Amino acid sequence: MTFTQYGKWLGCAMAALSIAAAPAAAGEEVGAEAKPLPDLQSVLGELRQGGFVLYFRHTSTDQSTAGDADADLQRCETQRNLSAEGRAEAAQIGKSIKALRIPVGSVLASPFCRTQDTARLAFGRVAVSKDLYFALGADETEMTRLRDALRRMLSTPPAPGTNAVLVSHSANLREAAGIFAKPEGVAYIFRPLPNGKFEAVARILPQDWSGAAPPVRAAAAR
């Protein structure tokens, strides 16, 4: 990514912060991070019924490894990948979601290894979507396409009785919804609304899933 591209993206991000937190005409929750979002407990009962879109930023990465400037999507070693901590986070998130009895339907991830690995470790499966490709290094035309595609995903109700999962990057959610997804591993819960709109209803940190899950009881001694 060039300095000029970064400056353009940063300018757009700062502009989004100045917009009031209200759904725009295209249906995005622009500036949602400007208002505090509830935690997992506030939506747990509804999540168990399904009907939401869970947007995950990939879990923790190894910052000492290769960056993405020259990434080859067919070769994980050319990309920034999950750290040991990130792999453990993803696995624990998946175990906790299962223990919380939250039904998961479709699981989509960006073509990068760190998002696919997060999805597989958490949910045991993943389908790759080019519409979730890392938006930060994209040109203006591609950035617009990725933004609009993600808005459609966030406003599309999942299959009845399930929640849809998207695993992607911070820049994508910033462009589509005015939310800078941080830290790594954070999840934002979106409720699809009529007419192509959606709203962010909760923000969940990686450790919050296990904190809400019931403790595992050891088998009684015999």
What's the name of the CATH homologous superfamily? Phosphoglycerate mutase-like
Q: What characteristic shape results from the CA principal axes? A: globular
Helices and strands, in order, run as: HEEHEHEHEHEHEEH
The CATH class name reads: Alpha Beta
Largest sheet: 6 strands, mixed
C-alpha end-to-end distance: 62 Å
Q: Unreliable runs, pLDDT <50, ≥5 residues?
A: 1-31, 218-222
Helix content: 25-40%
Features:
alpha/beta, single chain, Rossmann fold, globular, two-stranded antiparallel ribbon, 35% helix, disordered C terminus, 222 residues
Describe it for me?
With 222 residues, the protein is an alpha/beta fold. It has one domain: Rossmann fold. Helix content is 35%, strand content 17%. Strands 5-4-6-3-7-8 form a six-stranded mixed β-sheet. The longest helix has 16 residues. The N terminus and C terminus are likely disordered.
Outline of the structure:
The protein is of the alpha/beta class and 222 residues long.
Secondary structure: elements and pairs:
Layout: H1 3-17, E1 22-23, E2 29-30, H2 44-47, E3 53-57, H3 84-99, E4 104-109, H4 113-123, E5 127-128, H5 140-155, E6 163-168, H6 170-177, E7 187-193, E8 197-204, H7 206-212
Parallel strand pairs: 3-6, 4-5, 4-6
Antiparallel strand pairs: 1-2, 3-7, 7-8
Helix pairs in contact: 3-4, 3-7, 5-6
